[in-house]
Please model this.
Amino acid sequence: ALRYYIYCAVILFLIPGNYKKSFYLFLLSLFFLTFISVAKCFFEIVLYKPDPTIPNDIIISFRSLLVFYLLIFKLNANERLRKYYEKFKNTINEKLNIDILLLIVLVIIVVPFSRLLEYFEFESFVNLILNLSHYINKLVGYDTKIIQNYIFLNTNWVYLGKQCLGYGIDIMFVSLVFSIRSEMFNKILYSIFGLVILIVMNAVRISFILVHLFINGRYAMGVDAHDLSNYFFYTVVFILMLIYIFWFKDLNLNVFKKK
Model:
């Protein structure tokens, strides 16, 4: 996590304003980041058999929260930047139901904290995604088989773990939609539409990884196919939010609303 030490130093010392307090905050940041790294190692040892990645992801999210806090501090410490920052924040807040700062915090923590859902069983959701992937593969001419949480294509297989179900992305998407100031009916309808898109995209992702393994026998791409699909998911959420903000939220769809 050395890059976070660099982020803190760049923000605190390259952005003008209140260097004295910035120095003290930098020392506290060094301690905080070191503490997070120690806590991460601790959970990896103590929770070696269950799954240390769940608390680790939650702990690591506090690094991003720290960087975000330092950035806001420096924007407020610089008189010229503060004017632009306040203008930007007020403009955005006019279109939101919650403060933009709170929304950013939620975006940072919702995905790692949603991993707590992995302590529960959602077999029906796993079966839904795997069966969708099976039918997608069938459409493109590949015959796959599903055994428990595995989907096979000849001797190649993909295991659908709990962390791959997309809880975090789904919750983040719905949270973003409901944070936009618009009709409740539009929010509910678009949330359902978006969740269907994300679930189908997750099935497409599994199909893509499985076929990629079948053709190449291994990950033959410069970027891991699993990581690449994760970037794709964030891109899909971003595009869905643009569609909602600039078009869908203003549609008059509620036929039951009294005129």
About this structure: The CA atoms of residues 212 and 221 lie 9 Å apart.
